[in-house]
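Q: Sequence in, structure out?
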Amino acid sequence: MHKKKGFTLIELILVLSILVILAWMWTRWLSTLEAERAYSESCTNAVYSDLADWVYYAMTSRVLSNDVSPDYYILEMDGTWYNLRYWTWDSTNYSTSWTLYLSRHVEDFMYCRQSRTYHNVMSGNFKKIRMLPSLIPEWDKSWFKIYSDKEDGTRCKIQEKDNVTNKTNYLCVTWAITMNFCPITDIESFCVEFWQIFFDARTWMVKKRLCKVFDKEHGGKKCKERSTWR
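A: Exactly. Output:
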């Protein structure tokens, strides 16, 4: 008869040590992932705060510094930069002037570049959003207009001449700035779409939307379904 051989004390200690190390690595990975997601949300909140405030200024006809009352409030996108401008008309001298209120790059915010392995990349390809102050008479029925250089299906189809720039562009019903969570390598295929800052010209709204469901066909990195309100 053969005697049953069990685990020796050394073997048990070795197995337990391996399990402890694996558990520690798993916990650290989860905590790092949660930290990265927190950085991504904080970055989105910082950008959203600027843009939502600008929309609010237009909705309430906010008087800016030096008692300036803009005739138009403008939000322009330029790659990963966004510019807040305003346009004024001097009826005395019959002249117009453009003034830059704020210009920022997404990584101007600490949380957008906080991580050593990931950072936030902002993408928004619409040309600009033009907003009339809310107290303007109703000669222009839509005070919130989104412009694009290109036709985009049903979202950007109608052409309209911009009275400010005197150029013809496509009008968009909705558009969004996507906040992508990317490795430092900047390889786009590795980026994950987390947050979106969504603009709606029909309801004069700007809001944040979090990705709830990712599309498996695109490696789980492209968003398939977003939250409706945040």
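The chain has a mean pLDDT of 79.
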